[in-house]
Write a structure and sequence with these properties.
five-stranded mixed β-sheet, six-stranded mixed β-sheet, alpha/beta, single chain, 8 helices, globular, Purple Acid Phosphatase, chain A, domain 2
Length: about 240
């Protein structure tokens, strides 16, 4: 059996092809997984459990059905869905993890993260991250009425798109020194993360030893996949989209 890792699906609602593909996976290939980890940005925006759960009910129910089979499910907040809360956790049967999260994965000390913690060259984003990782900040924003949260979310998405056009591409990638520092702090020999939308496997050297960093695939047309990890290693599983 393998442990599955996904990130950066950026779902808008239950009706788009990616949502239907995820539901297909949760009812199919995921049933053979030892556990499933979603490492952030499952949703394009999450304005709070009260406002967003109804928009993704079929997806939520698909996670709950998988959890009911006994498959352990884990979720890590991303910069898009940082407002996911306890109602989501209860409805899906998923357990919310802190970022970063260290685990023993088939005998390898492994660090899991959404990934933006490593993008320390992007000063503006790090200021935002410090806010959204603060439970008190999140609680304050979630006290706003739904209409206000919807308006702020729409504004933030426009600001993010405009900001990405202005920023040099390298700033939005990880800082290698930050990667090696945090991996050394946790004694990790494998790092799995998303966020950067640059799926590949990297090698880093820590104290003379080579360690690996695997960037999860973001879901986009022609590229919908996940990482399957076993004691023998890592493999990307590509999922075939259902007919529109």
């Amino acid at each position: 059996m393998a442990t599955h890792f996904l990130a950066d699906l950026h779902l808008n609602d239950d009706h788009e092809p990616f949502a239907r593909l995820l539901q297909q996976y949760l009812g199919g290939a995921a049933r053979a997984a030892e556990a499933v980890y979603v490492l952030g940005d499952l949703f394009e925006v999450w304005i709070g459990d009260d406002g967003s759960l109804p928009r993704h009910r079929a997806t939520i129910d698909a996670f709950a059905a998988l959890a009911a089979t006994g498959t352990p499910l884990y979720f890590m907040r991303g910069n898009r869905d940082f407002a996911v809360g306890s109602a989501f956790e209860h409805a899906t049967g998923m357990q919310i993890l802190d970022d970063p999260h260290a685990m023993n994965l088939y005998g390898t000390t492994t660090l899991l993260s959404h990934g933006d913690i490593f993008c320390t060259d992007d000063i503006e984003h790090q200021k935002f991250r410090r806010n959204y990782m603060d439970p008190q900040w999140r609680a304050q924003k979630l006290r706003w009425p739904l209409w206000a949260r919807q308006g702020v979310a729409a504004w933030a998405r426009r600001k993010s798109k405009n900001g990405k056009r202005r920023k040099p591409r390298d700033i939005m990638d990880v800082n290698n020194d930050t990667v090696t520092k945090l991996m050394a702090e946790y004694g990790a020999r494998l790092l799995i993360h998303g966020h950067t939308h640059r799926p590949t496997t990297h090698s880093h050297v820590i104290d003379g030893q080579t360690v690996r960093r695997v960037v999860l695939p973001d879901w986009r047309p022609g590229q919908t996949g996940l990482l399957a990890v076993t004691g023998a290693g890592c493999e990307t599983l590509w999922l075939q989209a259902p007919a529109v």
